[in-house]
Amino acid sequence: MNNAQQSRQIRIRRFEENQLTGAETDFVAIEEPLEIRIRGNAIAITMRTPGHDIELAAGFISTEGIIKERSEILEIAHCEDDKANDDRNIVNVFLHPAVKINLEEFKRHFFTNSSCGICGKATIESVQSLFPPIISNISITTHSLNSFPDKLRKAQKTFHETGGLHAAALFATDGSMIGIREDVGRHNAVDKVIGHSFLAERKLSNLILMVSGRVSFEIMQKALAHKIPIVAAISAPTSLAVEFATENNQALVGFMRNNKMNIYAGHEYIN
């Protein structure tokens, strides 16, 4: 489903220059539910933009600590046996038999939507017990960082069409973009771009995660799960994101606009 339709044409009327225009067409971003199953058991439902669902599922289960290694996944596939539902909106994760998980526990903790991510998540202390603080010697210049926003903006194809999607991208320290994904949910875009690299067994500890919106605690946690040392954003971070970054030796950069930025944590990584 990587070529899934991500926008839809609708009829609208505009109000501009103090008058209503005639009917015309416009594009809106598509939002549909995705149910993620593990071994046939539903553990989460997220409202997402269709496309790259396999990456989304892989990113979700790895950033939430359900698995740690690519080898633990045997297969991720859209369901084809439940004709009472829309098969495109259900993915099943098949894990290696040796992987032991408490499905009931995950069912209690995970329920997601496109705006807030995980609701009812366990405490920050439990998250930190899953993922140790960053140890990194990464270094990046402000000149290289400043090149990210324009590259991100130019690669946001569906956003240009609809104005309604978030984006997340992974960059190397030299400024090259490794990958980008868009979604109606900020956390979904992050899961997709991380999931893409995770499935390809790409090392993420020497990369930078950039997001088009604000940075919450959850996005910092997802970066920490894959040892990503630097998170950058077009918008601002939350107070909890700053605290989390500081405690876990992550760099956090925000308000990257007009050749300016604020460095909230991890100053030692940036020169």
Provide an overview of this structure.
- This protein is an alpha+beta fold.
- The chain has 2 domains: 32-123, Ubiquitin-like (UB roll) (Roll); 142-269, Cytidine Deaminase, domain 2 (3-Layer(aba) Sandwich).
- The chain is built from 9 helices and 16 strands.
- Strand 2 and strand 3 form a beta hairpin.
- It starts with 6 loop residues before the first strand and ends in a 6-residue tail after the last strand.
- The model is unreliable at 117-122 (pLDDT under 50).
Question: In summary, what is this structure?
Answer:
The protein has 271 residues and is of the alpha+beta class.
What is the secondary structure topology, with strand pairs?
Elements: E1 7-12, E2 15-16, E3 19-20, E4 24-29, E5 32-38, E6 41-48, H1 53-63, E7 73-78, E8 90-95, H2 103-109, E9 112-113, E10 117-118, H3 124-130, H4 142-146, H5 148-155, H6 157-162, E11 166-171, E12 177-183, H7 186-199, E13 208-211, H8 217-225, E14 230-233, H9 239-247, E15 251-257, E16 260-265
Helix pairs in contact: 1-7, 8-9
